[in-house]
Design goal:
Length: 455
């Protein structure tokens, strides 16, 4: 990290030299001036991370230095130096934007702590500003936040395939943002003026899924008083995402294959072919090749869907995007709740950067929504994190003292810990982890964790 630059302004030589000596020993770059007039001239030419100014000086006093500093560089922090007799004035200065004050005579440790805290706030502001600029710069991909190589490669591929009408198979763990990838493909396609619809194939029975996709004719079943258009008609000219495609029944797989091959379909209870003008995208968190080998997914349908495959990286694979995502979610939930939570403490960011995130981006989003809801000031603190995440942090710190763990070992430990906390209730554990039960079962099998029962 670049060394902090600190401007010291005091008309007392001994006071200036003492401060400069302490700060240089701490590794800071310092400039020392003996008047407010010189300080104003210096601030016009150079920017500083921190200004430490005496309050009472001739001609130009500390309050004027504070005001000019904030005009020229609003993010620069200012510490007022004052005698006991002017503490009330120093407090007034804080109300005008000063970070804090040092009352003479001050202790060396007091200086060190206050300066470090002021600089942490300065760097946090700069980081937030940078993150906001990066988030705003995601032109063409407002839904896909990230600048890591994995995400840049994904965006490049999306930009290349979006203008085509090819079927796309989107693969990725639960919570990685597969639907956002599908929406991005649609928004960059020639079909963007028409509708984008998504349906989770695992949320419907075979019969209900057929009605949702294909619609039905009048009197197709008891209670069908009129014709209902299915999603394939409703989204005509646009794009449809078939999420969790691996959960589709064999019968529905045959019907979907016909749609892809013949470009038409029949409504439930109908005999008239209805032409299809729609782009079909499919997504799954399963390995479809294995599903084909096991006989649960049709090979011919797999080949029809697998024209182009996109692999959405897990959050563990794009860990450097966590600060960007946090900033995005802070702004999203602050706006939604009418709050002004704009910063994340360094300790919180350290915890998040060291966490395995088995629930991926969706889990991070849930964590940030909770944090914004609980925050009473402008900064997310450790106390705003879920208890299980805070406790997991201490367990990781304890383990780190004796051994270094791989990311998978961290995830295994955390999943086991959560299951212990909920007494083996897998439904509740999956909810806490931010993943579905299928993903949890898969991870239990991979890590050979035996928690028995069906709960």
């Amino acid at each position: 990290m670049k060394r902090a630059r600190i401007l010291i302004v005091d008309d007392e030589l001994i006071a200036r030299e003492n401060l400069e000596h302490v700060l240089k020993r701490e590794g800071y770059d310092t400039v020392s001036l003996d008047s407010g007039v010189k300080a104003l001239e210096e601030l016009e030419k150079n920017e500083y991370d921190l200004v430490m100014t005496d309050l009472r000086m001739q001609v130009v006093d500390g309050m004027q230095v504070l005001e000019r500093t904030k005009e020229l560089s609003p993010d620069t922090e200012v510490i007022m130096i004052t005698g006991h007799a002017t503490v009330s004035t120093a407090v007034a200065a804080m109300q005008r934007g000063a970070y804090h004050y040092l009352a003479k005579p001050y202790k060396i440790d007091e200086v060190r702590i206050l300066v470090r805290q002021a600089l942490e706030k300065r760097w946090l502001k700069k980081e937030v500003t940078t993150l906001r600029e990066v988030v705003k710069s995601q032109k063409g991909f407002p839904l896909l936040i990230g600048k890591t190589p994995h995400m840049e490669a994904l965006k490049a591929t999306i930009a290349q395939i979006a203008p085509t009408d090819s079927t796309v198979l989107i693969l990725g763990e639960t919570g990685t943002g597969k639907e956002l990838v599908a929406k991005s493909i649609h928004s960059l396609s020639t079909r963007s003026a028409h509708r984008f619809l998504a349906i989770n194939c695992g949320s419907f029975t075979e019969e209900l899924l057929a009605h949702e996709l294909f619609g039905h004719e009048k009197e197709a079943f008891t209670g069908a008083r009129g014709v209902k258009k299915g999603l394939l008609e409703v989204a005509a000219g646009g794009t449809i995402l078939l999420d969790e495609i691996a959960e589709m029944s064999p019968t529905m797989q045959v019907k979907l294959l016909r749609v892809l091959q013949e470009k038409n379909f029949f409504r439930v209870g109908g005999t008239t072919e209805i032409p299809v003008n729609i782009r079909i995208l499919a997504a799954t968190n399963k390995d479809l090749k294995k599903e084909v080998e096991q006989g649960t997914f049709r090979q011919d349908l797999y080949y029809r869907l697998n024209v182009i495959t996109l692999q959405v990286p897990s959050l563990a694979e794009r860990r450097d995007d966590i600060p960007l995502l946090c900033q995005h979610f802070l702004e999203k939930f602050s706006a939604a709740q009418g709050k002004h939570v704009s910063e994340i403490s360094e300790e919180v960011m350290e915890i998040l950067m060291g966490y395995a995130f088995p629930g991926n981006v969706r889990e991070l989003e849930n964590i940030m929504e909770r944090a914004v809801t609980l925050a009473t000031g402008s900064t997310v603190e450790v106390a705003h994190l879920p208890m299980d995440l805070r406790e997991h942090r201490f367990e990781v710190q304890r383990r780190a003292k004796t051994e270094l763990l791989t990311l998978e070992e961290h995830e295994k430990d955390y999943i086991a810990w959560v299951l212990n906390q909920v007494k083996g209730n897998k439904t509740k554990a999956a909810e806490i982890l931010g993943i579905d039960r299928v993903s949890l079962w898969r991870k239990l099998k991979r890590y050979q964790l035996d928690f028995g029962g069906e709960g």
